[in-house]
Amino acid sequence: MKIFFDVLNIYYLPQYLPVFEELNKRGHSCRFIVYSKKNDEAKMTELLESMGIEYTWVYDYNVAKDVYLKDQPDWIFFGNEFPYLDEIHKVSRTVQMGHGIGPKPSYYLKSKTPMTVRFIEGDLRLDKIMQMFPDDNFQQVGFSKLDPIFNKTEKGIDWGKVNLDPNKPTLLYAPTFNPSSLGCFPRNWPKEFQAYNILIKVHALTLSRDRYKKEQKLIKQWASYPNVYVAEIDEFSLVPFLVSADLLISEASSTLFEFAALNKPVVICDFYDLKWSYKGIFKYRFDARFGKDSVIYNDLGAHAKSYKHLKKKVEEELSQPKNFEANRKAYTRDHVGPTDGKASARIADYIEANK
Questions:
Q1: Beta strands in the chain (DSSP E)
Q2: Which helix (H) or strand (E) holds 241?
Q3: Which SUPFAM superfamilies has this protein been placed in (predicted)?
Q4: Is the domain of 279 the same as that of 264?
Q5: 174 domain residue, yes or no
Q6: Same domain, 135 and 168
Q7: How far apart are CA 60 and CA 146, in angstroms?
Q8: Of 77, 119, 160, 332, which is most buried, counting CB atoms within 10 Å of its CB?
């Protein structure tokens, strides 16, 4: 079969790659359709060629649509909505596979324009989305992004490359794009945590957009500390960092679900900044974006009410890693789904069974 992957943003890749590898292994012809409007052409080209992936550049949705109508692949994978499904469905079948498992209502609402199938992760998510869209086709498979961890093909970061001490406990700080705790951390916070390695993996948009120069300067300051490694924008996958870290610090990222699925402790920042468009009289936009599934993951792990409480919480959770173990397992069942490393195989099985 001929199968295309719609790569609107670089951060779709960790979700796509395990599925691509499984389909490629089974002899199917796979191609990535990459948007130049959203991605750095030089870096993305180098990355895809290093992995031996065939690709086609498009500028936007209109050009992508033209490619799909001309080439007529058997299946197209999408990481989000796509505006021309009526036309696409005349020649191809489509997959919707979200690139994250956070709590935003958009996770569910992107299915208001149904694709041929949508692959879903956990039990609770499947139940809820089937209630919302009872006539559509949902298949529970798990979360393919984590397959390399569960099937033990991902070895983690190269300690020599990042210049850190593998014998130290390691913290992963992974703030999301909005709301973000990044601006609430002081310039010298790595010094206060010098007993730990600190891996910092921020959202790709924070590193790539000019409007976040203030945040980029702060991140550069943190990177100057000897116990810190800051991931570059072309280090698109969080997966090696998940493997190597002992504890995760974040505020509203779906990374919290992913890390908890590895049964390792998380500390949730209850302090964060909002964009001006979500503050004051515009707070209704924030409420609409995050809805009833609060960005505060109430019982997934320990909460730090402010930065000054963070160190104590980190120390407590590392010394007693089983504190929230039962809750982590419940969240994993509800949100992440099966953790056997075979989500990609189940996806490929479905694709092959529905030629």
A1: 2-7, 29-35, 55-58, 75-78, 93-96, 117-120, 138-140, 170-173, 197-200, 228-230, 247-250, 266-269, 302-304
A2: helix 239-244
A3: UDP-Glycosyltransferase/glycogen phosphorylase
A4: yes
A5: yes
A6: no
A7: 29
A8: 77
Main-chain dihedrals φ then ψ at residue 310, nearest 5 degrees: -65, -50
Q: And the tokens for 302? A: 């320990």
Number of separate domains in the chain: 2
Q: SS3 for 352? A: helix
Terminal C-alpha separation, the chain: 8
Q: Tokens at residue 34, please?
A: 């990459």
Pick the closest to residue 185 from 257, 249, 231 (CA basis): 249
> H or E element: which one contains 19?
helix 13-25
Beta strands in 72-158 (DSSP E): 75-78, 93-96, 117-120, 138-140
Do 105 and 166 lie in a common domain?
no
Place of tokens 């130049």: 36
The identity of residue 151, as a single letter, is N
Neighbours of 51 (CB within 10 A): 13
Q: Where is 330: in which H helix or E strand? A: helix 325-331
Per-residue pLDDT of the chain (355 residues; tens, 9 = 90+): 999 999 999 889 999 999 999 999 999 999 999 999 988 899 899 999 999 999 999 999 999 999 999 999 999 999 999 999 999 999 999 999 987 886 667 778 788 889 999 999 999 999 999 999 999 999 999 999 999 999 999 999 999 999 999 999 999 999 886 678 888 999 999 999 999 999 999 876 666 666 667 788 889 999 999 999 999 877 889 999 999 999 999 987 789 999 999 999 999 998 877 665 555 555 555 555 555 444 446 789 999 999 999 999 999 999 999 999 999 999 999 999 999 999 999 999 999 999 8
Residue with tokens 């529905």: 354
Contact 335, 301 (CB under 8 A): no
Helix, strand, or coil here: 32?
strand
Q: In the structure encoding, which two tokens stand for residue 35, read together? A: 């948007």
